Amino acid sequence: MNGDLVLVALIIIGLIGRSPIITTAACLLLIVKLIHLERYLPSIERRGLEFGLLFLTLAVLVPFASGKVQVKDVLGAFTSWTGWVALIGGAAATYLNGKGLEMLKVDPQLIVGLVIGSIAGIVLLRGIPVGPLMAAGITAFILKILQLFTDR
Protein backbone atom coordinates (compact mmCIF):
# COMPACT_ATOMS: atom_id res chain seq x y z
CA MET A 1 0.00 0.00 0.00
CA ASN A 2 2.93 2.35 0.69
CA GLY A 3 3.99 2.21 -2.97
CA ASP A 4 0.45 3.05 -4.04
CA LEU A 5 0.49 6.19 -1.88
CA VAL A 6 3.80 7.27 -3.36
CA LEU A 7 2.41 6.80 -6.86
CA VAL A 8 -0.72 8.81 -5.99
CA ALA A 9 1.50 11.52 -4.51
CA LEU A 10 3.58 11.56 -7.71
CA ILE A 11 0.40 11.85 -9.78
CA ILE A 12 -0.70 14.85 -7.70
CA ILE A 13 2.76 16.44 -7.81
CA GLY A 14 2.93 15.85 -11.56
CA LEU A 15 -0.45 17.52 -12.02
CA ILE A 16 0.50 20.48 -9.85
CA GLY A 17 3.87 20.76 -11.55
CA ARG A 18 2.34 20.44 -15.02
CA SER A 19 4.49 17.42 -15.83
CA PRO A 20 2.39 15.06 -17.96
CA ILE A 21 5.20 12.51 -18.29
CA ILE A 22 5.55 12.02 -14.53
CA THR A 23 1.77 11.96 -14.13
CA THR A 24 1.30 9.44 -16.93
CA ALA A 25 4.13 7.19 -15.74
CA ALA A 26 2.82 7.14 -12.18
CA CYS A 27 -0.74 6.46 -13.46
CA LEU A 28 0.42 3.56 -15.62
CA LEU A 29 2.37 2.01 -12.75
CA LEU A 30 -0.59 2.43 -10.42
CA ILE A 31 -2.84 0.71 -12.98
CA VAL A 32 -0.32 -2.15 -13.29
CA LYS A 33 -0.43 -2.56 -9.51
CA LEU A 34 -4.20 -2.23 -9.20
CA ILE A 35 -4.91 -4.90 -11.83
CA HIS A 36 -2.40 -7.18 -10.14
CA LEU A 37 0.24 -7.28 -12.87
CA GLU A 38 3.10 -6.69 -10.43
CA ARG A 39 4.98 -9.61 -11.96
CA TYR A 40 5.78 -7.29 -14.90
CA LEU A 41 7.33 -4.57 -12.73
CA PRO A 42 10.84 -6.14 -12.80
CA SER A 43 10.69 -6.29 -16.60
CA ILE A 44 9.52 -2.69 -16.80
CA GLU A 45 12.34 -1.68 -14.46
CA ARG A 46 14.94 -3.69 -16.37
CA ARG A 47 13.91 -2.77 -19.93
CA GLY A 48 11.94 0.46 -19.51
CA LEU A 49 14.96 2.72 -19.72
CA GLU A 50 16.16 0.98 -22.87
CA PHE A 51 12.76 1.39 -24.54
CA GLY A 52 12.57 5.01 -23.44
CA LEU A 53 15.99 5.73 -24.89
CA LEU A 54 15.03 3.91 -28.07
CA PHE A 55 11.96 6.08 -28.57
CA LEU A 56 13.85 9.24 -27.65
CA THR A 57 16.53 8.38 -30.21
CA LEU A 58 13.86 7.64 -32.83
CA ALA A 59 12.28 11.04 -32.20
CA VAL A 60 15.63 12.80 -32.53
CA LEU A 61 16.45 10.98 -35.79
CA VAL A 62 13.09 11.66 -37.47
CA PRO A 63 14.33 14.90 -39.10
CA PHE A 64 17.03 12.86 -40.86
CA ALA A 65 14.51 10.27 -42.07
CA SER A 66 12.00 12.89 -43.19
CA GLY A 67 14.58 14.91 -45.10
CA LYS A 68 14.30 18.02 -42.89
CA VAL A 69 18.03 17.73 -42.16
CA GLN A 70 20.18 17.71 -45.29
CA VAL A 71 23.83 16.78 -45.82
CA LYS A 72 24.72 20.50 -45.88
CA ASP A 73 23.21 20.83 -42.40
CA VAL A 74 25.37 17.98 -41.13
CA LEU A 75 28.45 19.55 -42.70
CA GLY A 76 27.52 22.83 -41.01
CA ALA A 77 28.12 21.15 -37.66
CA PHE A 78 31.78 20.76 -38.62
CA THR A 79 32.36 24.12 -40.31
CA SER A 80 31.12 26.65 -37.76
CA TRP A 81 32.15 27.38 -34.19
CA THR A 82 28.54 26.97 -33.03
CA GLY A 83 28.49 23.55 -34.68
CA TRP A 84 31.64 22.54 -32.80
CA VAL A 85 30.18 23.80 -29.53
CA ALA A 86 27.05 21.74 -30.26
CA LEU A 87 29.21 18.66 -30.90
CA ILE A 88 31.03 19.19 -27.60
CA GLY A 89 27.71 19.79 -25.80
CA GLY A 90 26.24 16.61 -27.25
CA ALA A 91 29.29 14.57 -26.25
CA ALA A 92 29.25 16.05 -22.72
CA ALA A 93 25.52 15.39 -22.34
CA THR A 94 25.83 11.75 -23.38
CA TYR A 95 28.78 11.30 -21.04
CA LEU A 96 26.79 12.79 -18.16
CA ASN A 97 23.79 10.61 -19.04
CA GLY A 98 26.02 7.54 -18.84
CA LYS A 99 27.31 8.57 -15.44
CA GLY A 100 23.74 9.26 -14.32
CA LEU A 101 22.66 5.79 -15.43
CA GLU A 102 25.55 4.23 -13.51
CA MET A 103 24.61 6.22 -10.40
CA LEU A 104 20.93 5.24 -10.63
CA LYS A 105 21.88 1.56 -10.92
CA VAL A 106 23.97 1.82 -7.74
CA ASP A 107 21.61 4.11 -5.80
CA PRO A 108 18.07 3.87 -7.29
CA GLN A 109 16.37 5.68 -4.39
CA LEU A 110 17.93 8.92 -5.67
CA ILE A 111 15.12 8.98 -8.22
CA VAL A 112 12.83 10.48 -5.56
CA GLY A 113 15.07 13.53 -5.17
CA LEU A 114 15.53 13.78 -8.93
CA VAL A 115 11.78 13.72 -9.56
CA ILE A 116 11.02 16.25 -6.81
CA GLY A 117 13.90 18.44 -8.00
CA SER A 118 12.62 18.24 -11.57
CA ILE A 119 9.14 19.23 -10.46
CA ALA A 120 10.59 22.13 -8.45
CA GLY A 121 12.47 23.20 -11.58
CA ILE A 122 9.26 23.09 -13.61
CA VAL A 123 7.21 25.04 -11.08
CA LEU A 124 9.78 27.52 -9.75
CA LEU A 125 12.13 27.99 -12.71
CA ARG A 126 9.70 27.35 -15.58
CA GLY A 127 11.99 24.56 -16.77
CA ILE A 128 11.26 21.67 -19.08
CA PRO A 129 11.91 18.17 -17.76
CA VAL A 130 14.05 16.08 -20.10
CA GLY A 131 14.00 13.11 -17.81
CA PRO A 132 15.72 11.67 -14.80
CA LEU A 133 18.75 10.48 -16.73
CA MET A 134 20.16 13.95 -17.39
CA ALA A 135 19.21 15.03 -13.87
CA ALA A 136 21.10 11.99 -12.56
CA GLY A 137 24.09 12.84 -14.75
CA ILE A 138 24.23 16.38 -13.42
CA THR A 139 23.82 15.03 -9.90
CA ALA A 140 26.71 12.60 -10.46
CA PHE A 141 28.85 15.50 -11.74
CA ILE A 142 27.99 17.69 -8.74
CA LEU A 143 28.68 14.81 -6.33
CA LYS A 144 32.07 14.21 -7.98
CA ILE A 145 32.98 17.89 -7.57
CA LEU A 146 31.85 17.84 -3.94
CA GLN A 147 33.96 14.71 -3.34
CA LEU A 148 37.01 16.54 -4.73
CA PHE A 149 36.52 19.40 -2.28
CA THR A 150 35.69 17.24 0.74
CA ASP A 151 38.41 14.61 0.09
CA ARG A 152 35.93 11.70 0.14
From TrEMBL:
- Membrane topology classification: Multi-pass membrane protein
Pfam families (alphabetical)? DUF441 (PF04284)
Record's PANTHER family?
UPF0756 MEMBRANE PROTEIN YEAL
Homology family:
Belongs to the UPF0756 family.
Recorded protein name is UPF0756 membrane protein H7B90_16340
Q: Which InterPro entries match?
A: UPF0756_TM (IPR007382)
Give the UniProt subcellular location, in the record's own words.
Cell membrane
Q: Does the keyword Endoplasmic reticulum apply?
A: no
Among the entry's GO cellular component annotations, what is one? plasma membrane
Which residue ranges traverse the bilayer?
Answer: 6-36, 48-66, 78-98, 110-128, 134-150
Q: Classify the source by domain of life.
A: Bacteria
Keywords tagged on the record: Cell membrane, Membrane, Transmembrane, Transmembrane helix
